[in-house]
Amino acid sequence: MVGALAVLVASIAGCGLPKTDDGGFDDISMADLGAVEAQINRMLHALFPDLSEDELAEIRVSLDLEDVLALRDELDAIRESVEEFSAALFVSAEERVAEREMDLADHNDGFPEGLAAIGHVCRYDQAAEHAEIDLSGVLNGQEGVLLTEDMISVTIDGEPHDFTLSCLSNGPTVDIVFLIDITGSMSNVIDSVRDSVVDFVDVIASSGLEGTLSIVTFQDTVGVNRTFQQTAPANDYERSPFFAPVDIASASAIAELRSFVNRLEANRGADAPENLAGAIDFARNSVIGYEAGSTDPRAPNVIGDGRQDPAGTAPFPPLRSEHQVFVVLTDVTFHGDDRTDRNSSLEAAFVPRDAADILGSLHETRTVVHVSDPSWSDASLDTTDSSVDADYWAVHTGGVGEDTVLGYSLVDLELVVVAEETGLFDITLDTILSSSCNLDLDVQLDASAEVSLELNVEDLSFTTDLTVVRF
Predict the structure, then answer these.
(1) 169-438 has which fold?
(2) Quick one: pLDDT band at residue 204, thresholds 50, 70, 90?
């Protein structure tokens, strides 16, 4: 009781209540407590100006006086420190988009000039002797194309082969996970990112797609499920809150997801590469790095199994739909395989597994990754480097995001930033998803097999040789 009173008195002092001549406090009356309550409400408004009255009221219930003052001190210091960092890393998006429009004026704004599958890969399960061709976005110019089997032919070593077609627009369930970089360099674009994600959520919720939506955020940590409206996590780990998968058809759950997105902040982060690899592993497998001390040096550290869970982390629920689509939003590269807690800002508990191990799990679970990063953030795709282009995940899973036309992709982060009344994702990404299809083939593919795909839509055709990924 004495401790609680001390906190109350100290908090009142911080809120500026009147003192007596000898430096003490007047008796704490209901009026004084009311003044404290009003001051706390003003502080919350100042700390989180983008939140609604209902959202602030919900937060207020879970915070005491000491928490609010600690949040004020922490967030004020963080926001001041990241402002310069953010400005240095992300120059005017308007300027970049203007330059982009000029560069792509003669190239249909970066869209295909005709019919094309803008993302594709062939995965081959050697044990099951089963292949799957993923087509992420089939466009005719800027319009999505709804494929039917008669529009498609697949040849293996020059011979036609049967397949079974399924397209997201026709009902297979899909888990859509947004992976959002919330480090300091994202601070001057996080408002646009929030708006674009919320706009996309609204479109998907009314689209007829079946499945789930969820959010995973990342800094150098992943899975530290503390929001920015809660006090700092144990061991001063960076926050990386997540929102577990909810049914797209549940209006109440989708409303909660929107509120979660609106509460996101971007702060902290000590170096440029971030822990995107760890975020993907966490969302896909609820895994954070390797399990220390295991007899298998590559054994994954599964969160939620009661062993070696970093303080403050919680497991991410399994994804159980027929298809999984990850959407990454980041403004920098991710840590390559040589990173440790000694040569980077990563904490030892959050050093992710090697990219090849994570990528293998994506292929096994038929997960496609789309990447929205700045066109200027162009780095090597070699994971032995210390800093790797985020496009690595799109390139190797058949997703969209590779800088294919004059160094630009269809989902460059600059486009998200300058979006006004609508976001990028409720337009471009919705078109990509609604035209995404999968072809299943029971087939034996030897190491030298050549797989080709041909699309014919009216008088247009598209042909490509597919990269075969074996696992």
Answers:
(1) Rossmann fold (3.40.50)
(2) confident
